[in-house]
Amino acid sequence: MSAPLLSVEGLRVGFRAADGGMVEAVRGVDFAIAPGEAVGIVGESGSGKSLSMLAVMRLLGPPARATGGRVLFDGEDLLAADEARMRALRGRDIAMVFQDPQSSLNPALTIGRQITDVVRAHRQVSRSEARRIAAEALERVGIPAAATRLGAYPHEFSGGMRQRALIAMAVACRPRLLIADEPTTALDVTVQAQIVDLIAELRRDLGIAVIFISHNLQLVSEIVDRVVVMYGGKVVEDGPVADIELRARHPYTRLLRSCVPSLSGPVGPLVAIEGAPPRLGRMPPGCPFSPRCPQAVETCAAEMPALLREGRRSLACWRPQ
Amino acid sequence: MTGPILALRNLTKSFPQGGAFDRLLGRGSRFVALDDVSLDIQRGDVVGIVGESGSGKSTLASLAVGLAKPTSGEVLLDGEPLSRLMRNHAGPWRRRIQMVFQDSSSALNPRKTIGRCLTETLALRGVERGAREAEAIALLELVGLGPEMAPRLPHELSGGQRQRVGLARALAMKPDILIADEPVSSLDVSLQAQVINLLSRLTRELGLTLLFISHDLALVRTLCTRIIVMRKGQIVEQGPCLDVLEHPSHPYTRLLISAVPKGIAGRRTPASPDMPAREPARSANAG
């Protein structure tokens, strides 16, 4: 593997609790992504996947903050970078697309203005050149008659088109890394499929590395090379997509895959993961999944297994399958 | 009674569209949310209604429970027109058809405890004061929640737990028909499975007639015996669930099926050298 584009090492994110103490939500996360690689980060709400990415982008605000670890982007530790440096990187080298396209756009400005603002913040180009770049970006994300749509306001776009516009904004400056945080959750299934296909296409055509966050393993598996599975603020398994989907070793990964029904095979009760993810500040001392894990033994509840690398896969489990 | 428990007859609902100014000048047009839909639901049917936003499936639900009035057409509950039944606003008909909503946080009063939410509903059904608390606990148990939930407020519960409370509140009325409008679409996959299994079990055990509104075909396949595919206010295809999903005849049904995430089997680029890639492309129309 070539030198990683992004390497997250021992990342910790905590919240300042009312009593003055810190509650940890991300508890030592390690993973890396190579230039041009597509990685899916999957896990339930509260697993720490979105918080980790906000920490990478340095977008955490009080009471949350990164409390430890390193985020190396092209060798530079982003957690140590100053705000001016981050502003230069965000949108130019690393871009992020969020879940709700409605609230990510300014309702009072045209789509064109919002994209050209990003372009002009990072590149010394004229207004007309910025508009040309914006139109090209809209065209690329599949918005027909892009040049005429620059004058449209967000409310004139459907949910799917708004998400396309945000993706256009994200890729307008040709970033090296695109982070998509549940980009399709608010969208219809058919639009979801189109957005997933679009992200795959942009990655292929522009060579952008992609981090795709979702709670649906089957969805990310359609386009990523590798999957990182998170639970309780930790990485529990990481490996090539085919291994994770067909030969997962962590009981959580297996359950996460089998609780989503498919359109083929016998019809019967769904496999459910009983219970709920651990609450903040109430993490068990051992493996965070142990209270819900059908395979758990005494050790699991008592001691956290280390994330061990084996070839191209990593696993943190006392009772691998 | 052998007729349908719920029947829709040429049901149409339209809304004025365009700005207030246009409407004032009589220039406004109307958006047709539901377009001449007729449908018979038999007692004990478990029906999935699928389609995208704007297909009219939620409009259909709100007309069926009497939350909105149709522009034309009629809803029949056991053969009786809902428009007539509704003259008695709090009549016994209202108990018989209940709804579970998509957004569990806005469907519950944030300032009332779970217990109070249920006992008030039980009072509406005429359960005596002394018996309400015990029955509320029994309802919580029915949906897989413990009695410790009763004194809590909605924000202290997880999304999955709140959705169970929404279900318990609907069941408190001992309904014959339950309409669930996207009840799991805001939940994580693991919690979706829990709620779907619960709905499936309760429908069977209580002999409920269920209208399950969803855009997730795989969930509908798991839960429902019959499927209705809606698009732009009309029913484009319907039939036994497995038949329709295995042999869809309408192109829109096929499009919905192709959009279901299929994991590495759905890839266009190989996941690894030994994995074949999927060929046909999905519709690329914007928006």
Question: For the record, what is the CATH homologous superfamily label of chain B?
Answer: P-loop containing nucleotide triphosphate hydrolases
CATH architecture of the largest domain in chain A: 3-Layer(aba) Sandwich
- Report the principal-axis shape of chain B: globular
The string of secondary-structure elements of chain B, in order, is: EHEEHEEHHEHHHHEHEHEEHH
pLDDT < 50 runs, ≥5 residues of chain A: none
**Major sheet summary line of chain A:** 8 strands, mixed
Oligomerization state of this entry? heterodimer
Overall pLDDT level of chain A:
92
Biggest sheet character of chain B: 6 strands, mixed
Low-confidence stretches of chain B: 273-281, 283-287
Radius of gyration of chain B, rounded? 21 Å
The CATH H-level superfamily of the largest domain in chain A is P-loop containing nucleotide triphosphate hydrolases
Quickly give the structural class of chain A: alpha/beta
Task: Report the span from N to C terminus of chain B.
Answer: 46 Å
What percent of residues of chain A adopt helix (DSSP H or I)?
Answer: 25-40%
Number of alpha- plus pi-helical segments of chain B: 12
What structural class should be given to the helix and strand makeup of chain B?
alpha/beta
Characteristics:
heterodimer, A: about 325 residues, Rossmann fold, eight-stranded mixed beta sheet, four-stranded antiparallel beta sheet, 12 helices, about 25% strand, B: about 290 residues, alpha/beta
Question: How would you describe this protein?
Answer:
- The complex is a heterodimer of chains A (321) and B (287).
- Chain A has 321 residues and is an alpha/beta fold.
- Chain A has helices spanning 49-56, 83-89, 101-104, 111-122, 127-140, 146-149, 159-171, 189-206, 217-221, 241-246, 251-258, 298-302; strands at 6-16, 22-33, 38-42, 64-73, 76-77, 94-97, 177-181, 209-214, 226-231, 234-240, 308-310, 313-315.
- In chain A, the strands form two sheets. Chain A has an eight-stranded mixed beta sheet, with helices on both faces.
- In chain A, helix 4 (111-122) crosses helix 5, helix 4 (111-122) packs parallel to helix 7 (159-171) and helix 7 packs parallel to helix 8 (189-206).
- Chain B has one domain (6-286): Rossmann fold.
- Chain B has helices at 20-24, 57-64, 82-85, 92-96, 104-107, 114-125, 129-142, 159-171, 189-206, 217-223, 241-246, 251-258, and strands at 6-17, 29-41, 46-50, 72-77, 80-81, 97-100, 177-181, 209-214, 226-231, 234-240.
- In chain B, the strands form two sheets. In chain B, strands 6-7-8-3-9-10 form a six-stranded mixed beta sheet, sandwiched between helices. Chain B has a four-stranded antiparallel beta sheet with strand order 2-1-4-5.
- Chain B is globular, with a radius of gyration of 21 Å.
- The chains are: A alpha/beta (321), B alpha/beta (287).
- Chains A and B meet through helix 7, helix 8, helix 9, helix 10 and helix 11 of A and helix 8, helix 9, helix 10 and helix 12 of B.
